[in-house]
Amino acid sequence: MNKNAFRIASLFFSLFFFAFSSLAQQAYQKPKLTNPDSWSMVLIPDPQSYVKFERNLGILHTMMSWVKDNTDSLNMQFVLCTGDLVEQNDLLNPNGKQADQNSKQQWHNISSAFHRLNGLAPYVLATGNHDYGHVSAEYRATQYDRYFSAEQNPLNARALREVGPNLNGNSTGVNAVYEFSTPHPKKLLVMVLEFAPRNEVVEWAKKTVDQPKYANHDVILLTHVYLDKNSKPIVTQGYKIEDVNYGEALFEKLVKPSKNIRLVFSGHIGEPDRFEGHLGFRQDKNAAGKTVTQMTFNAQAMGGGWHGNGGDGWLRYLEFLPDGKTVKVKTFSPHFAISPSTRNLAYKTEPTQEFEFKLD
């Protein structure tokens, strides 16, 4: 190829790339409701890798800023988090590779991020295996209550209805029930349960949702471990703690017998830079013949694996349409959306990432 031909080809390629990039950026649309009468909730996946490295904290705060900025436009009613709030619950000497923040710093990092929503949006946070023991569920002790309590966010305090049993008998938000009145007539309960709930906790949960005063509520169950990457309920895990109930046991003992648990959200699973390894979704009938939608969503190993940037800022927002049946799911990254040069990456549009389902 002579020089003139090479220059013409290079110019053509540059113009094509510029035009394609411009079209991709112009195609970006800020998240919005498809129906102005809808309401939404936000699902934050396991944030442990954002808080264990100082360098990753900015991404988590970008996510919280996005929630703050879009509370009104998306008519957000509450924010849920799937657990593993920290990488190590009680570790003083991180090695710099697994983490460069000790446990006290990690708990401070996650609490300071979510406390930015205080007074703006209620949030309910599950506890995961990393939130217990020394490093990961060697025993059932967590610093959760030192850093999160209902009174810290007046909107949480206003919604709190029930508090479940804790090992030491103290009041705790680890097992709790919150009530929300959505723009549609149906009232919602969000029930959050500890990592691999003990039998006592499962029994408490079952009795709680069966109370006559909650007979006409729809219940969202939030817990850390539930579905695997093949969308099958998890049977067992290799942690040292005993008296546990993972996904299959929770479904059989609590979800299936219940008449009003309609949604289950969880996290926990993941594979380095493979999003499909972070996801699970299934629908089953409960004892009342109603469909229970079960969704696992995580992103912690996206953006460089287990020691990467923490998850590329991915979150989900779910739009509940005014028909009371249709729910639209969008997977979105405020981290990519913040810059015009990366906005074309801000949505995941695969069928497993952007879809809708029905509540019957």
From TrEMBL:
Gene Ontology terms, MF aspect: hydrolase activity
Record flagged with keyword Signal: yes
Domain Calcineurin-like phosphoesterase positions: 58-269
SUPFAM superfamilies in alphabetical order: Metallo-dependent phosphatases
Keywords, alphabetical: Signal
Signal peptide: 1-24
Gene3D superfamilies reported for this sequence: 3.60.21.10
Identification of the protein by name: Serine/threonine protein phosphatase
Annotated organism of origin: Sphingobacterium humi
